[in-house]
Structure of DUF4185 domain-containing protein:
Amino acid sequence: MSEHDTRPQPPTEDPPMRRPSRLLSAIGVGAAVAASLLVIGPPPVADASGACSNSGTGVRLPFATGSLGLPRGGSAQGPQKPLPAFDNGRSRTVSWVTGPLSRNRTFTNFGISGTDVGVAWDNGRGQTLLAFGDTFGNCLHQGLGWRNNTLLRSTDRNLADGLTLQRTGYAGPMFGALGFSGVEKTKIPTAGVSIGGRQYVNFMSVRAWGPPSVWYTNYSATAVSSDNGRSWTTPQSTVRPNLPWNPIDSVFQQSAYVKGAGADAGWVYQFGTPNGRFGNGYVARFRPSDVTNLGRYQYWTGSRWGGPGSRPAPVVRGHVTELSVQWSPVLRKYVMLDSPNGVRLRTAPHPEGPWSAGVRITPPSLELYAPMMLPSSPALRGTGPQLYFNASRWDDYNVALIETRIR
């Protein structure tokens, strides 16, 4: 995501968020997606120049540019500042994961001065894969070194002092996008899971950025990698067009994956929300072998699991933001994080609920969004109460590691 949201926000608690936008990928996604452009039309775009232009004042300002279109002044390494110290006895800021000030020195080691999201999942062999959204490089170069998305890796299982990334050189994009606002500006990963030795990343094709905390998608889809994230393909069977008359696909534009545990074992669950940050949360389930076959998905209708023609019912109501959901052996419950007005935690005995009321575990003053749990957390491995998650910080447009203790 890039920084196209400006303050003040619409009437919600959501903290602002960053992102640019793109559509029909290098692979065709069919006439249904093209039809969505004709039906919905290109929305007005709230456009700024990306993370590099963040003034650090809480308001995004357009770049002042020279004759070559390059920014005047500023830093090649973006606006990152020291991570604010916070520790209330339950939650604390640990360290930056990305950015020139992080322990990973991502500007030097990966060509990343700013990025966000940091969806994390285990690749099935003990390695954590992390998919990031809109990524910026040298802020003084034309084009700002922008990539639609990037993938980094880690084998670090001791997160108390921070998350260490493996160094592999310049981080190129996972998959591209057209790059035209109003058509397709970017593709943002929203969920990841490993099944049968392959990696699956659900992403949204963002058509344009709207008012604060609002963005418009063309579709969501699932990209597949058989080589641990080095290359990706997107089966057309996974595309969910964002069409106003489609009550299922339109509420699965952003996602979270979790593998079922206990009585839910044998299923993979996909949580979904509409585009932006103002919709309810829904849930579907599928057998691992059916991950790319939407026709075999089942949807929670409020009282039972129904087939692909069933109308899903919300399992979480309200302004649900970017989601992360995991099973905790410590609690023997599912844990859900999202981030309206600070990071919020819920629990439930089953993916369909009932979900508890959200408990705020970080304050709004930290300006965190997109909390994504790390699979190597003790709370997710059954070895302790510590739950670690990535969270993006608006003012610095980078990802930080946060620890909370579950009860």
